[in-house]
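dumping this here so i dont lose it again. seq + smiles for adenosine-5'-triphosphate
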Amino acid sequence: MTALLEVRDIEKSFGGVQAVRGVSFDVRDGEILGVIGPNGSGKSTLFNCILGQLVPDRGSVRVNGRDVTGLRPSRLNRLGVSRTFQLLQVFPELTVRENLILAGQEHRGSRLSRLFGPRDAGLGAEADRMLDFFRLRRLEDETAGSLSYGQQKLLDAAMAFMSGSRLVLLDEPAGGVNLTMLADLRERLEAINRETGVTFVVIEHNMEFVMALCSRLIVLAEGRIIAEGAPADVRRDPLVIEAYLGH
Ligand SMILES: Nc1ncnc2c1ncn2[C@@H]1O[C@H](COP(=O)(O)OP(=O)(O)OP(=O)(O)O)[C@@H](O)[C@H]1O
C-alpha cells in the first residue's frame, strides 16, 4: 500500500550547520506518528521542509504518491495537508468560530471570502463539527484572546483540521498546556483520528503525552534518525537514552 506521506533522504543546511542529514520515513494513512529528539536535533527544520516553509537541499516529499517537494504551504493546504506551529496561530480579536472559518478559508486558498462572501463562507457546518469535536461549542462566540492558553491550543489544533485536511502536522501541541487540558487534548486528538481517519505527525517534547498518543515514533539526533518503532521500544533504546542524557 502506498504511504500517505513519503519523506526521502531530506537534507537541509544553514551555512555550516547541517540541520537535517538524510532523513527518510513513511507515514501510513490513518497513523499517528511522533517525531522526538533533543533540542536542536532538526525536528522543526524537517517539518518546515515537508510543509514548504523551507526548500530542502536534497531529497523528496510525496503525499499520496505525488511529488510535493518545495511546494508552497498554500498549495499543500489545497492538497489536504496542514500544520500547527509552536507558537499559537489564533487571531485573538476574532471569535472561536471566526477563527475556524478563517482557517478553513486559508486551507482553501482564499481569505477574500471573509470580506466579500457569506458570513460563514460555506464553512459553517464544518466549523460546527470542529466546535463539537474539540468541545469548544460553549466558547464559540468568545474571542480567542479571552480563552485560557490550553483552550487556545485546542482551538489552534481544531483550526488545522478544517477544510478536510487529511494529513496534519502538529508542532508541539502539548507545549505549555496544563495537565487537565493535556488529557482533554490527547483524548480529542485520538477521537478525531479514530472517527475521521485523519493522519497526523506530531513533534513533541512532552514524552508522556507523545508516548501515549502515538502508535510509532521516530527519534532524531543531530539531524539523523537514530531510532524508530513502538513507543515502549524506543524509550528503552540505549541510543535514545544516550541522545537525551547527552543533552
Ligand atoms: N534559520 C536557521 N538559520 C540557522 N540555523 C538554523 C536555522 N533553523 C535551525 N537552525 C539550526 O539547525 C539545527 C536544528 O534546529 P531545529 O530548530 O530544526 O531543531 P529542533 O529539533 O526543532 O529543536 P527544538 O526542539 O529546540 O525546537 C540547530 O542547530 C539550529 O540552530
